[in-house]
Amino acid sequence: SQQGEEDPQALSIQEGENATMNCSYKTSINNLQWYRQNSGRGLVHLILIRSNEREKHSGRLRVTLDTSKKSSSLLITASRAADTASYFCATAPSGRRALTFGSGTRLQVQP
Amino acid sequence: DVKVTQSSRYLVKRTGEKVFLECVQDMDHENMFWYRQDPGLGLRLIYFSYDVKMKEKGDIPEGYSVSREKKERFSLILESASTNQTSMYLCATEQRGVLSGNSNQPQHFGDGTRLSIL
User: Fold this and answer.
1) Which stretches does DSSP call E strand in chain A?
2) CB-CB contact of B45 with B58 (8 Å)
3) Closest-CA residue in chain B for A9?
4) How confident is the model at residue A82 (pLDDT cuts 50, 70, 90)?
5) Which of A74, B36, B56, B114 is most buried, with most CB under 10 Å away?
6) Out of A43, A45, A94, whose CB is closest to B102?
């Protein structure tokens, strides 16, 4: 069953703009992770935020987590054409050994 | 850097065949996973293994089995391939965290095998 659901499903922006993707989930979690997938390739881990953290930064990425609303957001600032990819959130539900992935947001950054 | 190698990028097989997908990792990670990825459905977990010879069913194990005889290798087996198993298959590894009962480390993925069953 899918735990995380991303919103929007697709997003098209101009280079230099910010991109925001949201993820909602259903059960309590230990952590939430964001991954990136370029077309035809495997997923690459971007950032992990634990359930007791509210915000985390990594370069141009900013992730927030609101456990009371069971939601997270990924912000990419000053986007570049190379950021074009699909982005997935993955949750680590409490007591489950494996991650549960959402269906992803396809981001297109126009040069 | 962790390297996760899947034996084939593209594979074409016929219905009824027994199909083996291989995954090898070089970082001594305890946990290994097999997912399938289909448009609009995201990644769905087929099986995972948290130690040699240990395996657990994921969310969609029907029609699949796995083998983990050595720590670095995790094989996915389609016992009798069917057309609805046409998909992208992704292998991932994860270092076991402090809390062994939970997933709390980043996963590292191979580039996937695009499997077509005719």
Assistant:
1) 5-7, 10-14, 19-24, 29-37, 43-50, 55-58, 61-66, 71-76, 85-93, 100-101, 105-110
2) yes
3) B40
4) very high
5) A74
6) A94
User: Does residue B66 belong to the interface with chain A, where contact is any CB pair within 8 Å?
Assistant: no
> Which has the closest alpha carbon to B21: B116, B118, B95?
B116
Contacts of B39 by beta carbon, 8 Å cutoff, 6+ apart: none
**pLDDT one-digit tens code per residue, B30-77:** 999 999 999 888 899 999 999 898 999 999 999 999 999 999 999 999
Residue with tokens 């609805």, as numbered in its chain: B84
Place of tokens 């494996």: A98
Taking the CA atoms of B67, A45, B95 and A27 in sequence, report the sign of the dihedral they define: negative
Instruction: Write down the pLDDT at residue B100.
Output: 52
